[in-house]
Amino acid sequence: MTLPDQTAVIAVGGNALIREGQQGTIAEQFENARSTAAHVGALVAEGWRVVLTHGNGPQVGFILRRSEMATEAEFTPRLTLDMCVADSEGGIGYIIANSLLGELGRRGMADRVACVLTQTVGDSKSDPGAGLRPGAKGDPRAVARGDRSAGSGGFSHRDDRSREGS
């Protein structure tokens, strides 16, 4: 197999899967991912090798909130933030990979899509911005309601509207 000469690395923000005015349902995220996949499929058809990376801020917040709600009703172990991140990575990876497989299939192209979960370790001593990462975690509707607390987990919401379109 000969690999393409050109490689594109594309970052898809978590907010790109949940557009302004949407609730963030799985169906909406699939619809938005299919739209992105059409553009990526065009690059692949032109001979590009593509690596996609994605954000997950809103999705992590929804998973965290769901975990909090489940533990309020009955005993269900609460997920830690790192588990919420892993959950969102897998879910978003599935949504994007599924959408890409469909798009490439429509174009009659071989299916070569893989989803890889990663971990990144930050070093707050050598990276003064480590605690100031731009991605928000949480339900953006909570900020609009003035609810600054994400529950007993001690996380807080912040307004992330300055990053619209990411």
Q: Can you walk through the features of this model?
A:
About 13% of the residues have low confidence. The chain has one domain: Carbamate kinase (3-Layer(aba) Sandwich). The protein has four helices and two strands, in the order βαβααα. It is globular. The relative contact order is 0.17. α1 crosses α3 and α2 crosses α3. The longest helix has 26 residues. It is mainly alpha-helical. A two-stranded parallel sheet has the order 1-2.
Pick out its properties.
42% helix; Carbamate kinase; 166 residues; 4 helices
Strands in their spatial order, largest beta sheet: 1-2
Give the overall shape, derived from the CA principal axes: globular
Could you say what the CATH architecture is? Answer: 3-Layer(aba) Sandwich
Order of helices and strands: EHEHHH
**Terminal residue distance:** 35 Å
The quaternary structure here is single chain
Beta-strand residue fraction: 5-15%
Q: Please state the average pLDDT score.
A: 79
**Sheet having the most strands:** 2 strands, parallel
| DSSP summary, beta strand count | 2
What Rg, in angstroms, do the CA atoms define? 18 Å
CATH class designation: Alpha Beta
CATH topology: Carbamate kinase
Number of domains: 1
Helix content: 40-55%
CATH fourth-tier homologous superfamily: Acetylglutamate kinase-like
Class derived from helix and strand content: mainly alpha
